[in-house]
Amino acid sequence: MCGIIGYCGQKAAVPVVLEALKCLEYRGYDSAGVASLCDGQLLIRKDAGKVEEVIQKHKLADLPGHVAIGHTRWATHGGVTQFNAHPHADCSGRLAVVHNGIIENSQELRQELTRRGHRFASETDTEVIPHLLEDELKNGHSLEQAALNTAAKLEGSYAFVVVSLDDPGKIIGTRRGNPLIVGLNGRDRYVSSDALAFSQYTNEVMGLEDNEVVVLTEGGAEFLDAQGNKLVKQARKLDQSWAESDKGAYQHFMLKEIMEQAQVLGRIANQDKQQFTEIALDILRARQVIITACGTSRYAALVGRYLFSRVGKKFCDVVMASEFGYFADSVDKNTVVIAVSQSGETADVVEGVKAARAVGAQVISIVNRPNSILTDLSHQVIYLNCGSEIAVAATKSFLSQLAIFYLLSFAMVNSFDQAAARLAELSGEVSKTLDWNKSELIKLSEKLKDKNDAYYIARGINFAIASEAALKLKEISYVHAEGMPAGELKHGTLALIEPGTPVVVICPDDYTFAETLSNAIETKSRGAYIIGVSDRESEVYDSWIKIPKVDELLYPMVAVVPLQLLAYYVAINRGCDPDRPRNLAKSVTVK
Ligand code: AGP
Does 507 qualify as catalytic in the annotation? Predict the structure, then answer.
């Protein structure tokens, strides 16, 4: 879960790389660094800290050169230290590598390289790569052949980019299991984990398949397969709406993405009815349907399960992607696996999908990022079309996932058009919810900012919203939070309720209202501070987050939005950076 970038061309390379690193920071932000080739020197500067801090501390913008690479890190192997930050060099200091992924056989390779006299400067798995390359170059291979030979020795997943003083005009990149994309603009060449990194310069891109190598020079881009044969590739246009990564007038991406949700919902109905109808039929025909996902995407899947059952009368199971492998015995060619992932590159989801495909299951993925690893592995792909989501905490992608499940479930009963119309109308209700509650949520966040725990309860279709809202609070404000079915509280968690403990009760005015409120009263009797999320007022609430009256199956979409905003304001009040929560990254590409 790191971001990598390389640039060669006519511009000063390091400023381009630094701008790119800021765009890639969502992939990891505990360390950053660059390497630049200039006048026979390889200049490497790196440190622990966020990109901007490292830039300032090491005056990175002053580094000269027209060929440079850069990295922003989310630590896996080795602590967050300057030594472990990328780029990593070989013993001679003549080549530098940035890497995203995990080299699973790094220990064995390291021992072997150490026996051969290589000296390691970090604890990372990555560092075996420059040392392997060094040996290959010593054996007389070109930089691209050295990359091919090195890649063949690596187990695990990687995308890496290398520059060398021995071939100073070149950047070599290769990948297996992790993304790498090339951008072209005139004589300028870019290579990165994400086209966002260079989208301000170009929307002309070329992809790399697993095990392929790209050789970039000013004005040149040559692609090789794993055997070193030249490949012919066509450039394609990047969808610029996807590439947008500007906060606009908002202080944080998370706030912008929360506020965009009404528009996102307005657009979501522009889905391909034919595709939904076909997929709905596949789901109905399948012997079994399993939805697999992680984190927020899994909570969307839980809402989807409810919708499939309630509307389509089709039972399905939701399996946490990291646990999917343990259920693989019952997956077969009569199984439809629906993989839900905003990024399309979550390692647990990708692994589950590979296992499902291996036994002949049909794989449908619901993703946001175009051309992701998951889209390549799927038989059918539904795109969220909500634009790039930069904040680590998923918000607008979650709402879009809910909308997709809503459309799919109604497509099962030939009512796609009606469902699409209802979603378009819901857009106004989402705006209304944000307008009604903004100032109340700011006040409420003041009350919650010093709490250590919070509980979220709901029933039926809204149970997953309780879990998602709790996840939002804990991931960005570091307040312990749990979401659960309201009826489950009395089976244990009630013991944790003390005077003043916040309990968020999602109780729309539907068939769940009375029972959920009754569970809220049980906590209030023990001193809980009740925050009601409902279209129906009650004296039980100490604070009321008012939502509009909507159809019972649409409540999740209006209930989650103010709770995302509440989590945001609590984070701000606690002095946390909601876009870059500690220890987390947007794309979780490790198992
Ligand atoms: C969401 O706020 C979290 N950052 C996280 O739970 C996320 O949803 C999870 O890692 C899955 O990501 P994906 O949708 O990209 O697969």
Answer: no
